[in-house]
Amino acid sequence: MLHYRVISKIGHGGMGEIYRAEDLKLGRQVAIKFLSSTLAKEEETARERLLREARAASLLNHPNIVTIYSIEQYEDNDFIVMEYIEGETLGSVLERGPLDLFTTMEIGAQVADALATAHAIGIIHRDIKPDNILITNRGQVKVLDFGLAKMLRTPDDLMAAVNDQSLTASGIVLGTVAYMSPEQTRGEPLDSQSDIFSLGTVLYLAATGKTPFKGESILLTMHDIATAIPPRPSFHNQDIPLEFDNLIDRALTKDKDRRCSATELAEGLKELRGPLSGSHTGVAASAIHHPQTRYTRSGDVNIAYQVIGNGPRDLVFVMGWVSHLEYSWEEPSFARFLKRLASFSRLILFDKRGTGLSDRLTELPTLEQRMDDVRAVMDAVGSQQAILCGVSEGGPMCNLFAATYPERTIGLIMIGTYSKRIWDIDYPWAPTVEQREKFFEEIERKWGGPVGIYERAPSVAHDQRFRDWWATYLRMGASPGAAVALTRMNAEIDVRHILPSIRVPTLILHRKGDRCIKVEEGKYLADRIPDATFVELPGDDHLPFVGDQEEILVEIEKFLSSLQQHVEPDRVLVTLLSATISGSESEREQYTSLVRKELSRFRGREVRTGMQRYLATFDGPARAIRSACSISGIARKMNIDVKIGLHTGECDFLGDRLQGPAVDVAMQITARAKSGEVLVSSTVKDLVAGSGIKFEDRGLFEDRRLFCANV
After folding, report:
1. Distance (Å, whole) CA 461 – CA 444
2. What is the pLDDT of residues 418-471, one digit of tens each?
3. Distance between CA atoms of 55 and 37, rounded to whole angstroms?
4. C-alpha to C-alpha distance for 576 and 404, rounded to whole angstroms
5. Which of 426, 537, 584, 655 is at 20 to 30 A from 683, Cα to Cα?
6. Which of 525, 544, 564 lies at the terminal end of a domain, its last residue?
7. Angle between helix 262-273 and 192-208 (nearest 10)
8. Is the domain of 201 the same as that of 119?
9. Which residues contact 540 (CB under 8 A, 6 or more apart)?
10. What pTM value is reported for the model?
């Protein structure tokens, strides 16, 4: 095609398809965009307008603007030739979740700088959105499609798009409308301030994960943009400072004359990001930068480790099978997962002996030696106590560590893990010996490729980029012989007998469709570890950073928060609600689900749930009574037998456990209640004067008078 050799297709969008090509005359890589068939059929005046705008955009010379080389024609098809850049669009990055504040401001400042240069010579972008912002592999921002979007932004074009069901269904229009300015929605002439509003919308999304304007249809979204005042970014993220809120307010004001200029926005973002810059090296820090790798001695072996984050609790992350500390950060989804963990903890990572950057061994390590490695790393970073998080094959060692060293274990988290790896008559979910032997053979034959990807990451098993990363990660983690030996050793481990000895708070997370380790194996652990919490999550992926990682991260953060708040005994005055529930298992589950909603209405906190017993606390006795009467009413409607007792007294909180005489009193009162009754102690009654709650005297119980409450 002329003097260009097309190499491969690299993208498509509303304007057309983009190809990677080689300029045979100049010997350089370029990107070629063929205009869409709709544009190709435009009348000649429209084509002249496109050429005029593209020529104007080609005048821009700025490091944050993709350079347009030429506009050419081949067989009546117009195409644009521009610089070829390897990277990822901001839209793709944000699909994995919001960015940290520094990265958001770094990206915003670079885009604003680019806009300031364009605005200075009278060029308006008119289509600033995440998909038109590219993050190069070096972390530099490049703004795409300067001057080209106007063809699709006239009032007639816009309304035609709104009425085009195929465009609406494909999301092309919605993806653009969300970033329009109020004057764009009204079809008014646009100036540079329209770009500022669009960039403000992008920065809002990057910092919060939420779009400020999102209606149920295109027209409702346009109406919101023109009229609605969104909550400030800090409403969604309390870590966002007032100064950032103020900058976004200025960018998103409906009155375009009151908006800041691109130069003012760039300067404001740079000034605000300044205090945060000490621990960052640019946008690349968010995507590919990894913490410094250090070493410590465990016996005569060097163990590689990293530390990231400064949260109030130490979290030791134990990856399964093989690992490689530094190459983990090259996969964006894995990097985001680790960074998110580090946002609420001090995250401690290490490569097990024999894998990754730690010393390779001639003999296989025992679980005992692996525990020594954990203690050595904790000692090296000054961690006296930590929460252990074991993934897959990392789980059994974490179990043993928690049972052996409870004084150093605050809590235990297990993600997609197991008790043993070979089938047994009372453990029928694990692979058989024959199945394991086939897997050992597969490792020997196929190591170097993406071994096990279909079981561990089925949702991305056909994604070539992820397949390449996974194959390299495995190769860098262990040699073929070491991989087989480690896998054989894991198959011999059986920690079932030590599970009842684990006495620390434990959270077990398992995806329902996990193809590598069955969800029943997670349930088995939860049944045998005292007071363990089991959470079954949707999805088929085994690797926690693949698929919907946010569901896993939310549960971990919630678990750590409970430990952070109640690690030391905390004696408080509370009103306890104790209930016994009869009925079938399905009825009790349905009822308990409704009870939780009622608890949240009255600021109650669920403490303990058993098969037929329920315990919750309240910070006020009147709220407790009203909640109790409400859930009693639900039971009557469901024809379920429920008895409820309430008592106010002092209790000790330790982790997620509640203890003290007041708990026993509340349970004793529940035992004396009749079906459907809310029975309260005189202590509760005496604290709700003026509430309007009615009481019926039910006589003495030991030294307390009991009353039936009725709201």
Report:
1. 20
2. 998 889 898 999 999 999 999 989 998 999 899 999 999 999 898 888 999 999
3. 21
4. 35
5. 655
6. 564
7. 30
8. yes
9. 458, 459, 511, 513, 514, 515, 547
10. 0.46
Q: What CA dihedral angle connects 87, 92, 95 and 98, to 10 degrees?
A: 50
Residue 412: C-alpha distances to residues 218, 530, 534 (Å): 47, 12, 12
Residues 76 and 149 in one domain: no
Query: How far is it, in rounded angstroms, from Cα 21 to Cα 9?
Result: 9
CA-CA distance, 103 to 108, in Å (whole number)? Answer: 8
Sign of CA dihedral 104, 108, 109, 114: positive
Give the residue from 82, 204, 39, 187 showing the smallest Cα distance to 126.
187
pLDDT in tens, 78-130: 778 888 887 788 988 888 788 888 889 989 999 999 999 888 888 888 889 99
């009481």: which residue's tokens? 695
Residues in the chain: 711
User: What 3-state DSSP class applies to 507?
Assistant: strand
CA distance to 279, 421, 656, per residue, from 395 (Å): 32, 12, 22
CATH of the domain at 679: 3.30.70.1230
Distance CA 247, CA 47 (A): 38
Query: In the annotation, is 540 catalytic?
Result: no
Amino acid at 333: S
By residue range, what is the domain housing residue 304? 290-421+495-564
- In the DSSP assignment, the letter for residue 708 is E
Give the dihedral sign, CA 458/459/463/465. negative
**CATH number, domain containing residue 396:** 3.40.50.1820
Residue 23: phi, psi to the nearest 5? Answer: -80, 105
Q: How many CA atoms lie within 13 A of 96 on its CB side?
A: 21
Residues 62/113, Cβ–Cβ less than 8 Å: yes
Which of the residues 23, 100, 113, 127 is marked catalytic? 127
Q: Which residues are within 8 A (CB) of 98 and not within 5 positions of it... i.e. 6 or more apart?
A: 104, 205, 206, 207, 208, 209, 237
Locate 270 and state its tokens.
């740079």
Q: What is the pLDDT of residues 511-520, one digit of tens each?
A: 999 999 999 9
> Following DSSP, what letter does each residue of 141-164 receive, concatenated?
EEE--TTTGGGG-SHHHHHHHHH-
Tell me the sheet residues that pair with 19. Answer: 9, 32
Which H or E element spans position 72?
strand 68-74
Closest-CA residue to 39 (of 31, 51, 30)? 51
Say if 151 falls within a structural domain. yes
Compute CA distances 52 → 56, 70, 127, whole Å: 6, 12, 17
* Token representation of residue 703: 């030294």
Residues 261 and 394 in one domain: no
Question: Which tokens is 457 given?
Answer: 């990451």
What is the rounded end-to-end Cα distance, in angstroms, of the chain?
Answer: 82
- 706 shares a domain with 639: yes
Structure token pair of residue 546: 């693949």
